Amino acid sequence: MTTLLQRAQQEGTPLIDGETVTFVWAGENPPQLIGDFTYWEWGDGPRNLTEAESGVWTYSLSLPPDAYIEYIYVRGEDRLPDPFNKRRITNGMGKMNAHFAMPDCKHTDLVKHAPGVPAGTVTQHQIKGAFTIANGSRPVYLYKPPTDEPVPLLFVLDGKDYFARAKLPIIVDNLIAQGRIPPIALAGPQHGGRARFIEYLCSDATIAFLGREVLKVAQENLNLIDIEKNPGAYGILGASMGGLMALYTGLRVPEIFGRVISQSGAFGFDLSGKDTVIYDLVRNAPPRPIKLWMDVGRYEWLITANRKMRHTLTEKGYDFTYREYNGGHNYTFWRDEVAHGLETVFQK
Questions:
Q1: What is the mean pLDDT of the chain?
Q2: Phi, psi of 199, rounded to the nearest 5 degrees
Q3: Strand order in the sheet with 291-297
Q4: CA atoms within 13 A of residue 156's CA, in its CB half-sphere
Q5: How is 248-298 classified by DSSP, letter by letter?
């Protein structure tokens, strides 16, 4: 009879039997387990392993057949890799997570160039002397689609991350080639490091930076449609704090940022027991003329806040698209979902 340890050594972990997932640790003094399914450090605490065989410790849970999960073992402040799982991915904050996918999880194939697909051009620029952002200097990544015609512009918050980790330029290349969206340009300013939280927490200074400095660089280097003649034709995309800032920007300046993609928006911050100002914009102002896509994972701590924002927008009469998926707070699923958002807000 094959033991749990033998299965872990042969198959890798976690062990997947139908919808049951089993994590396996061998040795004394087992660590604890955190991941998307615990809402990481923001949930109800790490999971303890139990001894299933002599010196073999396990933790089991049930997951949907299409789920994608990231996790790590912890012992105190130390993060420990899973010795039976060689799959590693960055968490974007200088650390690595283990990950796995359930049998029915299908990641997007849009991150690879299909044969014969024309590729757009990516360039990097530096904005210096901007008083609307921390440190007064910021890299901006531009994507020019493979066309000479004037195109709308999508502002991409956390631009370096979306360009490199989510492969956004390649996704846009493929969507254009497949006729699923019209050609669009991208302008992706990178965040301000430790200042990111401040810049993205409903900041009018950030809107000024986008509408003045970033737009100026984009207009100098890209062939864009005239926004004054096409109000609301540009868009904005962001994830987490960027997802909050994307919706806030669309609500504040819909005549420019009329197409909004908010991924895992961080709508849950309260200020001394009060909602952030974005709720006041939704509740107390007439509905803004924006095309809106929202998505969020069922295994992330922001699911409740996104459901609250969905309810608030619905009560106010907004027409928008909202989707939940069986994943967590990571670029893997933001990458997989962003094409749906692009198709929704940039319909041909």
A1: 95
A2: -65, -30
A3: 121-128, 137-144, 185-189, 153-156, 234-239, 257-263, 291-297, 321-325
A4: 32
A5: HHHHH-TTTEEEEEEES--TT-EETTEE-HHHHHHHHSPPP--EEEEEEET
Which token pair is 189? 């300013």
Task: Report the SS3 class of residue 94.
Answer: coil
Question: Worst-scoring range by mean pLDDT, 207-211, 214-218, 272-276?
Answer: 272-276
The Cα-based distances of 294 to 37, 109, 276 in angstroms read: 21, 21, 18
Residue holding tokens 């799959």? 87
- Contact present, 37 and 3 (Cβ < 8 Å): no
The mean pLDDT of 116-134, rounded to a whole number, is: 93
- The closest alpha carbon to 240, from 269, 214, 211, 215, belongs to 269
Q: Provide mean pLDDT across the span 243-249.
A: 98
Q: What is the model's pLDDT at position 179?
A: 95
What H or E segment, with its residue span, contains residue 208?
helix 204-208
* % residues pLDDT > 70 (the chain): 100
Write out the H or E segment, with its range, that includes residue 160: helix 159-164
Cα 269 from chain centroid?
A: 18
Report the pLDDT value the prediction gives residue 44, as an integer from 0 to 100. Answer: 83
The Cα-based distances of 89 to 71, 81, 165 in angstroms read 10, 11, 10
pLDDT interval class at 341 (50, 70, 90): very high
**CA atoms in the 13 A half-sphere facing the CB of 20:** 6
> What domains can you pick out in the chain, each with its CATH number?
10-101 (2.60.40.10), 121-345 (3.40.50.1820)
Closest CA to 280 of 306, 237, 316: 316
The mean pLDDT of 28-38, rounded to a whole number, is 94
Whole-angstrom CA distances from 285 to 156, 277, 280 are 26, 12, 8
Q: What would the two tokens of residue 58 be? A: 């396990």
Tell which residue, 55, 54, 48, 59, has the closest CA to residue 24: 59
Residue whose entry in the numeric block shows the structure tokens 């974005």: 278
